[in-house]
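Budget justification aside, the reviewers requested a transparent look at the raw inputs and outputs of the sequence design task funded under Objective 1. We therefore reproduce one unedited record. The lines immediately below are the structure tokens for a 472-residue chain.
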């Protein structure tokens, strides 16, 4: 409910916002403003509505929320006297409230119409009004361009990485299909030759039984031992008139076939059927191996698609119960092509880490920025493309602790001081625009969490603490 102002100069003087403002100036501001008292649940301003009023918190607290689709996302809170919202139309005729302010406790604000705020400011500091207008326009333009470029660069990087990751298993699957076609041709031709050799059903059944007995060694043979086995098999095949022994021997020996097995096969088949019989067994082994390779390749592709779905949070609510470790793992999968072979990835996820209520897609953006920065620290010119990337999750009394550490060159004190500032970057021109950590900081803050940097002699750690729920 709005009433004639009951606020006085003393109320405003206690707010750090008005340090340096004279009592007369505060009286003039009170004269054009009004006190607004509120109760829990009251909405004082709404997102995307014209920001026609400037509201200064005197007592109480407000949640700042924004709707994304049908979901409501908590952006932050006004919970410290002196914090303010709105009034943007004093400087920008298109200014709107960027969130909805909903009271979480009883309190009061000073409400000043934007037109009155502009007049009050212009009378006392006209240059300041022009500077603010210029800053608002410039900042809006620069941030829009920078964020568009950041999004395009990130999208291009992820798309290129994903294409690279999918290309390898896709190429392997394509090659396996071609080789499987050839193996099937051999399989069918040898069956025809066996039939032409008057092999009985009992003899073929005995051969198939021997085929089923073949098992690869539990411990794969070493290079020398396997080579010796291949020589033994090749010599046996040559002695028994089986052609193409140089081609069949590696397949048979690699699958676990030895000379005693071959002797049993020779005893089960008539002489004329030995060669097609051995070729038939070899072709079945080749086909089985190719099917396994094909399954692994397509499984890898399916896994990558699943990682993309998890990373982008397709078909999921904006705010949901979120497994932080799952998000970190999907991010590592998406960024795999950016991690050189010389960098060792150490995963350290505790078993008792609880799910948290969060915007999972936004947190994945945080993990992307932090992991990419850690990798960059170990791949710049003075880092030799090697080191250790450590990704860890732990349960803590306040919620969940995530640590992303790297053994790169570290940060100096000045870099630590400005790391979360917008547009601050230590990367060469054209490689970074300094929004990654700023965006990460904002996202973590919206979740009522904390992000900090810990530089140690052997490791630089970005530490993120997140509550079980943004409201806690």
């Amino acid at each position: 409910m709005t009433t004639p102002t009951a606020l006085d100069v003393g109320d405003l003087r206690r707010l750090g916002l008005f340090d340096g403002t004279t009592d007369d100036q505060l009286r003039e501001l009170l004269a054009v403003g009004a006190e607004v008292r509120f109760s829990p649940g009251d909405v004082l301003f709404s997102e995307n509505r014209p920001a026609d009023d400037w509201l200064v918190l005197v007592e109480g607290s407000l949640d700042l929320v924004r709707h994304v689709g049908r979901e409501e996302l908590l952006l932050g809170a006004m919970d410290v006297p002196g914090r303010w919202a709105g009034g943007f139309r004093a400087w920008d005729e298109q200014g709107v409230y960027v969130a909805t302010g909903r009271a979480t406790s009883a309190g009061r604000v000073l409400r000043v119409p934007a037109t009155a705020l502009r007049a009050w400011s212009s009378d006392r500091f006209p240059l300041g009004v022009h500077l603010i207008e210029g800053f608002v326009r410039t900042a809006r333009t620069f941030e829009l361009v920078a964020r568009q470029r950041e999004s395009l660069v990130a999208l291009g990087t992820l798309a290129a990485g994903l294409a690279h990751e999918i290309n390898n298993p896709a190429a392997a699957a394509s090659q396996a299909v071609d080789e499987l076609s050839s193996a099937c041709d051999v399989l069918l031709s040898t069956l025809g030759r066996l039939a032409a050799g008057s092999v009985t059903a009992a003899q073929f059944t005995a051969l198939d039984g021997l085929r089923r007995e073949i098992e690869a060694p539990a411990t794969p043979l070493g290079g020398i031992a396997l080579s010796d086995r291949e020589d033994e098999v090749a010599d046996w095949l040559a002695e028994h008139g089986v052609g193409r022994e140089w081609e069949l021997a590696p397949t048979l020996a690699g699958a676990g076939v030895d000379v005693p097995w071959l002797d049993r096969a020779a005893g089960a088949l008539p002489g004329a059927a030995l060669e097609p019989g051995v070729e038939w067994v070899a072709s079945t082994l080749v086909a089985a191996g190719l099917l396994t390779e094909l399954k692994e390749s397509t499984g890898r592709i399916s896994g990558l698609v699943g990682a993309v779905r998890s990373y982008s949070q397709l078909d999921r609510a904006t705010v949901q119960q979120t497994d932080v470790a799952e998000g970190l793992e999907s991010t590592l999968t998406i960024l795999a092509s950016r991690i050189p072979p010389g960098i060792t990835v150490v995963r350290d996820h505790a078993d008792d880490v609880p799910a948290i209520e969060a915007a999972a897609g936004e947190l994945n953006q945080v993990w992307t920025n932090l992991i990419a920065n850690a990798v960059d620290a170990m791949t710049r010119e003075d880092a030799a493309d090697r080191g250790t990337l450590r990704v860890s999750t732990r349960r803590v009394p306040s919620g969940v602790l995530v640590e992303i550490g790297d053994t790169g060159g570290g940060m100096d004190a000045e870099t630590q001081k400005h790391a979360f500032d917008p547009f601050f970057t230590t990367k060469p021109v054209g490689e970074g625009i300094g929004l990654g950590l700023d965006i990460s900081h904002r996202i973590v803050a919206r979740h009522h969490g904390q992000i900090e940097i810990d530089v140690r002699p052997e490791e630089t750690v970005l530490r993120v603490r997140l509550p079980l729920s943004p409201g806690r």
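Residues 163-303 form one domain. The CA atoms of residues 394 and 401 lie 5 Å apart. Computational costs for records of this kind are itemized in the attached budget.
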